[in-house]
Structure formats: C-alpha cells, structure tokens
Amino acid sequence: MSKSGNRSAVLQWVVVLGVGVLVVAVVLGLNLISRLDAGQDVLNGAKPAFIPASRVTADRAGINIISQDVNMADPLMERSGGGAGEVGTVVAYVAKREGVSDTAALALLDKDFPHTTALLASLPLSSATGELAGFEGLLEKLLHLTPTQLLAALKADFPALAQTVTYLPKVTHHWDNIAGIGGLTRFNGTPVKTVPQLRDYFSDDVIPVLERERTHFDSLDGTSSLSWIAPLLVAVGGVVIVFALLMMWRNWRGPVGRREAVAGAGVVTVVGIVVVALVLILNLIPRTTNGQKLLDSLKPVWTAQRVAGDRAGIDMVSDIVNLETPIMNRAGGASTEVPQLINLVARKTGLTPQAVLATLGKDFPHLTALLGALPLSSVQAELPALTPIVTPAITKIPRLAQTVLSAPNVIGPWDKVPGTDGATRFDGTPIRTVPQVRDYFSDDVIPVLVAERSNYDKLMKTSKINFIGWLVLAVGVIVIVYGLLMLGLARRPPGASVSAGPTGTPLPAA
Questions:
Q1: Are 268 and 483 in contact (CB under 8 A)?
Q2: Strand partners, 506
Q3: Sign of the Cα pseudo-torsion (169, 171, 173, 179, in order)
Q4: How many angstroms separate the CA atoms of 429 and 417, rounded?
Q5: Does position 506 have pLDDT exceeding 60, yes or no?
Q6: How many whole angstroms separate alpha carbon 138 and alpha carbon 153?
Q7: Residue pair 328/376 in contact by the 8 Å Cβ criterion
Q8: Which of 29, 40, 196, 349 could form a disulfide with 226 if both were Cys (CB 3.0 to 4.6 A apart)?
Q9: Each residue's pLDDT tens digit, 203-255
C-alpha cells in the first residue's frame, strides 16, 4: 500500500474516532448517566402509584368521595358556606305549609326528624367551635378536673368524642384558609386557599395526570431500566474510540493486510448492528418519546411550591376525616359516648340527665345541637322522608340542597368506598374505607412527590430525553453504514485504483 493509501486508511479511522468522541461527549456533556439514574429512581418511586391499574382507579374513587364530602360539608362549616342562612327559610316554609308558627314548625321538624333538626340548629359548625372552650371549662368545673386531666379523661373514657372536639376547631378554623398551603395554585394559576379549591385541584388537575399518563408510564418503565442507556452509549463510544485509535496506529505504522482491514471494518459493522438491535428490541424510541410526554405532564405536579402545598392539603383532608370518622355512623363511637358523658356529669353533679342537657343547650346551643345530631347516618336515614316535604322550596335553599344531595354519597359508603374493590396500598393493605383512602393518599402517594421531586428536577435539567432513542439509533446506523463502506474498501482487489470521495475518503474505482 502506498503512503497515500496509508494516509487514507488512517483518515477512515479518524471518522470512526469522531463518531465515538461525539457520542461520549453528548453523554457526558448532558450529564446523562446521573440524570437517567435519577429518572430510574423516579420510576421506581412512582411505580406503585401507577401499577397496578386498580390504584389509579382507586385514586379517582377516593377523590370522588372526598369531593362529595366537601360538597356535603361546605355549606355547614362557616357562615359564608350559606347553610346556616337557609335554616330560617326551611322553618318558614314548613310553617306556611302546615299553617302554624315558626316555633310550632320547628317543633314538628324536631318530632319527625330529630337528628336533621339538631344538625340544622348546630349551624354553622364554626359556632360550635366557638363554644368548645366554654363547654370544656364547664366540664372541668363540674367534674373538678384541670384542663389536662379533662383531656386525659376524655381520651381514656370517651375517645371518639375526644377526637371530635380535637379536630372540630382544626377543620372549621382552616376551612376557608388552609394552614401551610402557601402559594399553592391550580395548573392554570388559580390560587388554592379553601378546602373546595383544594378538592378541585386534586380532582381536576393532579388525579387526571395519573389517569392520563398511566400508559406512558408503562411504556417508559417497560422492558428494561433507564440506567443502562447512558453507560451503554459511553461503552459503545469508548469501544469505537479505542478501536479507532488502535487501527489508526496500525495503519500509521505501515500497510495493513487485507484480512486485518476486513476484520476491523467488520468489527465496526457488528458494533453498529448490536446498537440498532438493542434500540429495536428494547423499544427505546417509543419508550423515551412516551417518557417525555409523561415527564411533561408531571412537570406542574412536581414544582416545589405544589409539592409543599400537596402535603399541607392532604394534612387538611386528614383533619377532616379525623373529625368525621367518629360522627359519621354508629360504629364511629361518638354517638354512643354522648349519653355516657351526660350520665357521668349527672352523677357527679346530682342533676338529672335532662337538667344537664338543658344547661348545656342554654349555654352552648350549637355544640349541644351537634352532639344531638349524631350519628350523621341517622340524618341520612331521615332525608328520604324529609326531602319530599321541602322539595318545592329547593330553589330557595341551594346550599342546604347541596348538602342533602351529597350526604347519601358520603355517609352510606363511608366504610365501603365505591370503586375501590381490589385496590391496595403500596404495602398491599386493602383500601376500602374513607380513612384508608386518606391513609393511601397521605402516606403513599404524596410521599412519592416529596421524595422524588429532586430526582425529577435532576432528570429534567439540561435537556429532554425523547432524543435519546433517536440518538442511539442514529449512532448505530452511522456506524453500520460506515463499517460497510470500510468493508467494501478493505475487500477491493489488491492494486485496484481508487478515487477520492467528497470528504477525501478513497472509494472503489468503477
């Protein structure tokens, strides 16, 4: 081989060297190794939220019953909710319908629907909260207990009531201004401050991402780990660089035999074929493309402000569930503890239970009425008979109507949430009741957002990932094409003339 041929052979391997250097430079320059490792951590952390599909179904079922709960409770919590302002309208309508005074109408309602009437008398529940301190002070005085002793006694002997009075102020005080919510906004920028706004955020923004992106998650997570992609690219680039340098050195030293030249070109071609095969077998292009769609959809969920707001929000939901669990049905326990507490006070003071109730009702009317409404399942039981009576006036009481329409969708399914059949927490614990739904969101889903936020940020930094599959494929195809070209050149008959291609690379003569 002539000196000119030697130089041409070296230049062939310079091109191969350039391909290898480019691949390694892209991987290192975009920090793909650590970024894709972080991406795999995100996938591992989020996988239980997406797989099995029953969990995504449980997400929707859970947020639906929470939404109904918010619809039921919103008119009742604060005066701004509107329910308290409509109670007089209900009484006036019944009075007109029966042709009696408002006082007599209220007595009729109390006779036929005692739990519902008591609930109406307790509104707004923030007024019951305002009476708690005085109520507890009276109990301390009557029972000769300090505040600490009273709380301990309630927790020991009346745990359901103790839970109710503990969480009632936490819920009513923060219903319209959630504690710690900070600057949380909806995806469209709308501020989230109140519980109804929080419900809309979870129901209309966050959960739809899980529903919509589950198939994209499956695609990205399928077949193999993300973590191998960047090291594979570095390995391919490294092999190409080392082999190219070796062949450049061999050709620079002097003529290379035809067999050795063919073998070198063959190695280059095989490397390219292996790379392309991996891309196709592992579906790397659709996986990274769908993965980018997943990551783009998750971007508004994973901002630092929203992750902090999610935790504050789910803590508020937890307080609501803690308040309602003891009072929702008889199994909750609060309704059976009320008469026990009244009897205890009666024994300690020498008063009759009726006298104790009269005293409490006079000084703490809203709180006493709330205790008389328990359990809320008894309110639900009265609604089928009460609803036809007040239906003609329904347009005048839209807020109470909202409570009436939502209550059966909350109280009845409290211990068996529709749509959660077969659903489990990340540890396999069944999800059936509203408290279990709350635990799932609070202890499983939200912690994923908290724990993996930094990994998500790291993955999304610098560049997208949807180019990776195409990059690997392009590298493989280029290496194959160039390897075949080199193979053709290496196999030309000895002494055949060559002409220079556009880049100076010698081509076989025609």
A1: yes
A2: 500
A3: positive
A4: 15
A5: no
A6: 15
A7: yes
A8: 40
A9: 999 999 988 888 888 888 776 778 888 888 888 888 888 888 887 887 777 77
- Of 3-7, 116-120, 125-129, 427-431, the least confident: 3-7
pLDDT for 240 equals 82
Question: Cis link prior to 375 (omega < 30° from 0)?
Answer: yes
Beta carbons of 440 and 49 less than 8 angstroms apart: no
CB atoms within 10 A of CB 98: 13
For 508, the enclosing helix (H) or strand (E) is: strand 506-508
* Rg of the chain over all Cα atoms, to the nearest angstrom: 36
Q: How far apart are CA 228 and CA 399, in angstroms?
A: 57
Lookup: tokens for 405: 């329409």
Q: Which residue has the higher pLDDT, 186 or 502?
A: 186
Assign residue 103 a region (left: φ > 0; alpha: ψ between -120 and 50; beta: otherwise). Answer: alpha
Q: How many other CB atoms are there within 10 angstroms of residue 329's CB atom?
A: 21
**Tokens linked to 131:** 């009476």
Distance CA 56, CA 395 (A): 37
HEC-encoded secondary structure of 302-359: CCHHHHHHHHHHHHHHHHHHHHHHHHHCHHHCHHHHHHHHHHHHHHHHCCCHHHHHHH
Token pair recorded at residue 278: 């991996």
What is the token pair recorded at 337?
């503890």
Structure-token pair, residue 469: 């599959």
- Contact indicator for 234, 24 with CB cutoff of 8 Å: yes
Eight-class DSSP state of 413: G
Query: Residue 290: exposed, middle, or buried by beta-carbon count in 10 A (0-12, 13-18, 19+)?
Result: buried
Q: Write down the pTM of the prediction.
A: 0.84
Tokens of 354: 């009726």
Taking the alpha carbons at both ends of the chain, their separation in whole angstroms is 19
**179: region left, alpha or beta (phi > 0 left; psi from -120 to 50 alpha):** beta
> 3-class DSSP state for residue 213?
helix
Return the H-helix or E-strand segment holding 506: strand 506-508
Q: In which residue are the tokens 């529903």 written?
A: 211
What was the pLDDT predicted at 223? Answer: 66
User: To which residue do tokens 């936020």 refer?
Assistant: 453
Residues 6+ apart with CB under 8 A from 390: 90, 93, 94, 397
Question: Rounded to the nearest 10 degrees, how much is the dihedral formed by the CA atoms of 258, 260, 265, 270?
Answer: 130
Strand partners, 424: 430
Residue 379 burial (C-beta neighbours within 10 Å; 0-12, 13-18, 19+): buried
* Alpha-carbon gap, residue 13 to 485, rounded angstroms: 12
pLDDT for res 503? 45
CA–CA dist 116, 415 (Å, integer): 21
Backbone torsions φ then ψ of 499, nearest 5 degrees: -125, 155
